[in-house]
């Protein structure tokens, strides 16, 4: 067991020290970037449901109360590939990235409790945009390059326990940390030096979420699942640096005259987020569920994230519907009967409002719609699985100076099960 712990800790250290570029969306420019999906591949393949779902063999990152159901030590590692086609009505550009989307581990504690810990991206920034201005003679007079990278990561520790038969509660502590760099380089025609505006932000803070799950029988074969998770109100602190200086693009952007060099502090305040779930199903056979999440608007205070005049935040909401089906998970004659088939759909109002025309009055909501499906492939004759997931969707729309992003996401995860603590048998 000591060797297993050493291997897991080594993986965590190596991942924490490895910086990834895990976004290619123009909308990651705003705030601390795109909020990453915090669900497992199994969950995202079902439209990202999971608040009410518990499983003996798999981790559920939507609700720590589900940890009370774990019966095996579970390792979970996932990779995600994102591909985006952005169009503004006249042109279409493509971008893509591949990254490690989470590394997590769950350990059962006795018969009715469990513990989990892990690391996953919390938000991501990754874009590279060019804006050109032409005169009446269609000659280029000004060009601006927008670039950003970085994001925040989340280290978490969760605990779940069954309070009485069918009813479980759970709590999870999270530490958010990361750095974000944004810059704009502007070059005018017939001007030898360009100007560059650069911001560097260091972000950190603690968050806490808790939830419950209730499971009871509707009849001999079908169970009713209820669940809720609450991300408590929290504040992420930011330490910001702003620079404006001139550069010579011909000499590799060597800084020349510094016009602005300031440091400041701020915070990003997040109201409580509530997620509710309901589902019905038969253990290890099938499940169909619905999740609904909602949250008041984010509130950036005293930081450079509050300087963006072309965005504002509104209320967030998300509805997901999905489920799975396994023909016969104990089959010894047919491999495909032990395969789990998953599908789902989501509609998400991100809360981000963008003024694409720049008149500071016409803000448009950026919504996200996606359809997903996937399979869980058993590994050998064990309870471990190789999970494949696909998601197709779109975000934003071609209207009022905005862009529409059509995306295809491919996800792969390994869910490995082992029994660490075995009761000694005496014959």
From TrEMBL:
Domain of life: Bacteria
UniProt keyword Signal present: yes
Keywords recorded for this protein, A-Z: Signal
Range of residues in the leader sequence: 1-19
Protein name per the record: Long-subunit fatty acid transport protein
Native source organism of the sequence: Lutibacter oceani
């Amino acid at each position: 067991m000591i060797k297993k712990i050493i291997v897991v800790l080594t993986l965590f250290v190596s991942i924490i020290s490895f910086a990834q570029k895990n976004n290619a969306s123009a909308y990651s420019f705003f705030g601390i970037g795109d909020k990453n999906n915090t669900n497992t591949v199994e969950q995202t393949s079902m439209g990202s449901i999971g608040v009410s779902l518990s499983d003996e063999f798999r981790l559920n990152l939507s609700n720590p109360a589900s940890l009370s159901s774990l019966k095996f030590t579970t390792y979970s590692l996932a990779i995600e590939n994102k591909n985006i086609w952005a169009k503004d009505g006249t042109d279409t550009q493509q971008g893509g990235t591949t990254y490690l989307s989470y590394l997590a581990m769950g350990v059962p504690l006795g018969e009715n409790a469990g513990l989990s810990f892990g690391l996953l991206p919390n938000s991501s920034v990754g874009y590279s945009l060019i804006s050109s201005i032409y005169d009446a003679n269609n000659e280029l007079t000004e060009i601006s390059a927008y670039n950003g990278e970085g994001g925040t990561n989340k280290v978490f520790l969760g605990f779940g326990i069954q309070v009485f038969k069918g009813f479980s509660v759970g709590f999870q502590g999270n530490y958010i940390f990361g750095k974000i760099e944004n810059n704009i380089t502007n070059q005018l025609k017939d001007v030898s030096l360009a100007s560059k505006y650069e911001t560097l932000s260091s972000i950190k803070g603690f968050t806490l979420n808790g939830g419950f799950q209730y499971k009871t029988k509707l009849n001999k074969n079908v169970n009713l699942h209820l669940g809720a998770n609450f991300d408590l109100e929290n504040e992420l602190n930011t330490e910001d640096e702003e620079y404006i200086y001139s550069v010579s693009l011909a000499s590799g952007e060597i800084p020349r005259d510094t016009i602005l060099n300031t440091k400041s502090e701020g915070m990003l305040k997040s109201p409580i987020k509530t997620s509710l779930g309901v589902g019905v199903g038969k253990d290890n056979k099938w499940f169909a569920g619905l999740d609904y999440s909602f949250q008041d608007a984010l509130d950036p205070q005293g930081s450079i994230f509050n300087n963006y005049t072309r965005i504002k935040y509104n209320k967030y909401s998300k509805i997901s519907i999905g489920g799975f089906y396994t023909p016969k998970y104990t089959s010894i004659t047919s491999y495909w009967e032990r395969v789990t088939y998953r599908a789902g759909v989501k509609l998400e109002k991100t809360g981000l409002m963008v003024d694409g025309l720049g008149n500071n009055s016409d803000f448009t909501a950026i919504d996200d719609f996606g359809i997903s499906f996937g399979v869980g492939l058993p590994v050998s004759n064990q309870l471990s699985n190789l999970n494949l997931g696909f998601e197709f969707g779109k975000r934003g729309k071609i209207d009022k100076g905005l862009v529409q992003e059509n995306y295809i996401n491919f996800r792969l995860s390994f869910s490995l099960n082992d029994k660490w603590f075995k009761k000694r048998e005496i014959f």
